[in-house]
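$ run holo --ligand "copper (II) ion" --emit tokens
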Amino acid sequence: MMTAFDRRTLLRGALGLGAVGLLPAWARAGEVGRSPAALSGEEIKLTVGHQMATIDGRSGHAVTVNGSLPGPLIRLKEGQNVRIAVTNALADEDTSIHWHGLLVPFQMDGVPGVAFPGIKPGETFTYDFPVRQAGTYWWHSHSGLQEQVGLYAPMIIDPAGEDPIGYDREHVVVLSDWSFLHPHALFRKLKVNPGHFNMQKQTFAGLLAGQDQSLKDRVAWGKMRMDPTDIADVTGSVYTYLVNGHGPGDNWTGLFASGERVRLRFINAAAMTIFNVRIPGLSLEVVAVDGQPVSPVSVDEFQMAPAETFDVIVRPTEDQAFTLVAEASDRSGLARGTLAPRLGMSAPIPPVRKRPLATMKDMGMGNMHGGMDMPGMDMSMRSQSNAPDVPLTPGVQTIAPMPMDRMAEPPQGLEDVGHKVLTYAQLANLHESTDKRPPGRTIEIHLTGNMERFMWAFDGEAFGPIKKPIAFRRDERVRVVLINDTMMAHPIHLHGHFFELVNGQERQPLKHTVNVAPGGKVAFDLTASEPGDWAFHCHLLLHMHAGMFNVVTVRPLDGEAA
Ligand SMILES: [Cu+2]
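-- output --
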């Protein structure tokens, strides 16, 4: 006969199993100690395999590493060497791991077809590199669409000397988007109908009720065959948004003791989702972006695109729970976790806010209203005179007539939320720049798309065998200007380097990924110090898959004549 005690133990065991699922130790709720458990040392072994994952009580197919989703946390120390042996235990597909944000020899960068051939089923590839930096990074598959089904995980590198960021406790917070639909099915649906997942379109009833756009604006947008509710391609209609692999119902919880400085290492490992992050009741002190320390900025909310990382200090002093909210930028759903002094506590979850509508500015029309004339400028939406070097292929639906630097503006949808929102212009490097040369030349790259056909590219041509790489001379200082000719934001990521965002600060912040606002323009200064071939792409997985990808070459290689 079962005693009450046995039953309690059994119940607790069963519940624990349900909540833990495939989660590695670092991602479990209520992890105690200053830092979460991790793989570390000079020899690390990873195995990529298939597994069923349970998200908010429902089961789906996942690609996992060492049997977990997200994968194990890897924690290294600046100055050490590491050998990471990755075995592909998938039955019938290649795999790869890219160390996102890490300065590695290009052969160790993990991009199939660029850095190495990829890892065949049954094979092991050993990555071997010195660790030259510190901070919050992550790693993910660069093969097929494996990143969408679970192959991503955090990587933390502790500084060789003292950490410039003081803290008593830390939590790694990996945000992601999970779908029970296969990612190739997501892609096919978008190809057939790019608005497939948009359940927030304007309605005729809404128009009559005077909601959303005016009739005049709506007619103008209709003529362009565009929809201002098109903020995200894949939405909460098929995504569950995760915190450390936990659905909102699972409620991942991070513990704190009152008065501690808690470092939250936010990583956006989502395939397609830009998140707006806030913790109602707590001020967020942003202390590092993309692994690199910045002068602290206190805000109430920040937006983070896929591939970006933000380190934030919070200092809860009350004996209460706080809800960690990461709202999808189109407001179709949210990821939710809790910070609390004890397990089992929770705080109210704020409802998702009103969905944003894209504006004429997001169309690259500057501050003008549709149809207004600007002397000497062609305000039509697809005029070659505004981008003479971009061929008007079917993949180019629009060319922004008046793209603007929008880095001092709150990101899309956060213009009037009534509290402090981080802008890129507020970020300043904590340290002096190591290269003070002015750029020797400037190149322009257009981010182009055709929203009607889900086509995405750089400069009008999708990545393919005949696409010319972007060539830099080794150690040259170059300014790169990204012009977003589309009405969607694109987080553009360069492998193997940090660049300095030209954001008006004297100490330009270092980043590896920059989210270029719709109709926006962003400049960065780059010292092409890392020889080799490097991927350069939009980090929205399905945009990259559709062709918004290119290779950056930095020459000469070591030992090669200049
Ligand atoms: Cu994109």
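-- notes --
The longest strand covers residues 43-55.
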